[in-house]
Amino acid sequence: MSFDYTPIILSLKVATAAVIIVVLLGIPLAGHMARRNFPGKDLVEAFVTLPLVLPPSVVGFILLWLFGKNGPLGQFLTGVFHVSVVFNLAGAVIAAAVVSFPMMYQSAKAAMEGVDKTLENAARTLGAGELRVFLTITIPLSWPGIVSGFILSFARSLGEFGATLMIAGNIPGKTQTMPIAIYMANEGGDTATAMILVVIMTVFSFLVIFWLNRWSKRQQKGFIQEEGSE
């Protein structure tokens, strides 16, 4: 029996592209929300974290409506750039980025809220601008939380199913990622293929969680030792 590695490759491509988007958008937003209070902040945070509680099929339906040929974003992309993200790999990337974004945002925001504000204020009194303070003080001190968010977002993107199926569909060799391939193999009676993919995803997810827990403990232990030496 020949095994098709295409779903694995597509899943890795989708997860990589999605996590890049999540990092580029999530870290600046987390930094802004961690340090600013403004009217409607709670509404913004509720909207950002909404994909955590919504069923993936609901997220996929909303994305399909937004990016469909008659949707507001779909019409814009088609009219201006002559591109469509529905039923292709770009749709899968968008779906993965949307469902994994809250993990990056929450991890980064929690870490940034724990940064000692006196260090940031000291940098400002020495003439550092807000961008420099953010890049040289806030991000380095928030690094453990950012790394955790990055890893969890990548793992969540790799395992995305419902929203991806809604907006990208099931096109073998084009949009059929591992979770979709598992579902289709099981439906088609190909238990062997489904089992191989299930084992791959389970082992990967386990290793991610195991490594993240061990890494977090080492970081915490190192922090305690530094505090004790002072």
What can you see in these coordinates?
- By secondary structure, the protein is mainly α.
- 78% of the residues lie in helices and 0% in strands.
- Helix 1 packs parallel to helix 5 and helix 1 packs across helix 10 (178-187).
- The chain is globular.
- The model has no long low-confidence stretch (mean pLDDT 90).
Notable features of this structure?
230 residues, mainly alpha
Strand content: under 5%
Secondary-structure-derived class: mainly alpha
Q: Which value, in Å, is the CA radius of gyration? A: 20 Å
Number of helices: 11
Order of helices and strands: HHHHHHHHHHH
Regions with little confidence, pLDDT below 50 for 5+ residues: none
Summed over residues and divided by their number, the pLDDT gives a mean of 90
Separation of the first and last Cα atoms: 62 Å
Main beta-sheet annotation: none
Total number of β-strand segments?
0
Shape: globular
Compact overview of the structure:
The chain is mainly alpha-helical and 230 residues long. The chain is 78% helix and 0% strand. It starts with 5 loop residues before the first helix and ends with a helix.
